Amino acid sequence: FEKSGLDPFELFKEKVILDAGCGSGKFSAALARLGAAKVIGLDIGEHGLDFARKQAGKVSYGNRLDYRFGSLLDIPLENESVDMVWSNGVIHHTLGYEVCLKEFYRVTKSGGRLFLYVNGRMGLLELLMDTLRLSTEVVPRSLFQHFLRLQNINSGRLYWMMDFMFAPYEWKSESDVRALLQKYG
Q: How far apart (Å, rounded) are the C-alpha atoms in residues 28 and 105?
C-alpha cells in the first residue's frame, strides 16, 4: 500500500468488505486489523473456513470477521451490500471468471471498490505449468503433496506448487481482464 501511495487505514476504515475466496482468512484478518467495520470471508473450502474461524477467536478484532461457506459464482449476499470486494488470486480458479466479476459488481455498492489480483497469461511459465499439469494427471494429489513434504519444501512454496499443479486455471491476458472489468462496471 505504501509503495502505491495508499493509506490502508483510510482505504478500509469503517468499510464492509467481502473477501471473495478467503481461504484460511489471512487477508480477511488483515483487512479487519486495518480498520474494516466488517469482513465477510467467503469460500468453498470448509477446512480453511474452520481454521479462519478458530483464528478469529484469538484476536481482538475477531468480532468483525464473518466467515461463510459459499461460491463466488453465486454470492450469497444482497445486491449492493458491500463497500469493497477483495479478491486475491482466486477467480482464475473458478472456471467462471466472467460470472465472478458480474457477481462482484452486483454485491458492491455504487461507488464501491474492487481489489482484484489474478494470475494472467505468463508466456513460458504458463506453457511449462500446463505441460507439468498434463504430465502429472495420473499422480494422486496426496502423493504429490507427500513427495514435496519429503523434499522439505516450505509451506508457502508447497501451497503455491499444489495450487499450480492441481487447481483449475482460466488464463486471461491483461487486455481480456480490462475488457471484462469494463463490461461489468
A: 19
pLDDT, tens digit, 9 for 90 and up, residues 90-128: 998 898 999 999 999 999 999 999 999 987 777 777 778
Residue 81: burial class (beta carbons within 10 Å; 0-12, 13-18, 19+): middle
State the Cα–Cα distance between residues 19 and 167, nearest whole angstrom: 19
C-alpha cell at 99: 460470472
Q: From the CB of residue 120, how many other CB atoms can be counted at a distance below 10 Å?
A: 14
C-alpha cell at 173: 491476458
pTM of the model: 0.85
**32-68 pLDDT per residue, tens:** 999 999 999 999 999 999 999 999 999 999 999 999 9
For the chain, give the percent of residues with pLDDT over 70: 99
Rounded CA Rg of the chain: 17
CB atoms closer than 10 angstroms to residue 22: 28
CA distances (Å), origin 56, targets 61, 64, 131, 168: 8, 9, 39, 29
The DSSP-derived string for 17-79 is: EEEET-TTSHHHHHHHHTT-SEEEEEES-HHHHHHHHHHHTTSTTGGGEEEEE--TTS--S-T
